[in-house]
Design goal:
- With about 210 residues, the chain is an all-alpha fold.
- It has 2 domains: about 80 residues; about 90 residues, no CATH class.
- The protein contains 8 helices and no strands.
Amino acid sequence: MLERDYNTQRKKMKLPEYGRSIHKMVDHIMQIENREERILAVKGVIDVMGMMYPYLRDINEFKHKLWDHIAIMSDFKLDIDYPYDPPKPETFIEKPRLIPYQQSDIKFRHYGKIMENYIAATAQLDDENPAKPVNTELLANQMKKTYLVWNKDAVEDSKILNDMVFLSQGKLKPDPEMHLQEVNDIFKQQPKKGKITTISNQSRKHK
């Protein structure tokens, strides 16, 4: 009985998009002793690989890529004269460079940086500006909603208002008697499709 050849038992392909036949061709070329015959065989394989992408095969950058792929499939062991500088194995084992992310100091992560920016902007408004108390109340309610995302338990309105005073560095002084939305009402709210109310839109209505 012939022993079955399962893919799981075969050598892992370096570039699966080319298929096992191309990889076998490259493996065969590596066994050719004559250097000139090896380069001729590689050129033939390059032509076959190019047929898989006929609309790209005449572009120099694409040809360069095909030769690079030959080097990769041969595990960088194919001894030929490459028309381009072949890639080095070290290129594929280098650790990726760290991307510098902007670090910002967020005082309360459950409110987020955007909320802090809104509070800072509202704090800069003149006390005579009618938008200031409106925005203050809207922001306080939004802070309560955001707080409840992190903590499903009930939260005292005084906690929210005190946090607002802290985040505004004392520039916002919400009325201690301000009544924020009830927790049950917040969880019942469902936003309507196609209609989004923003803090700025609400402010314009009260101007």
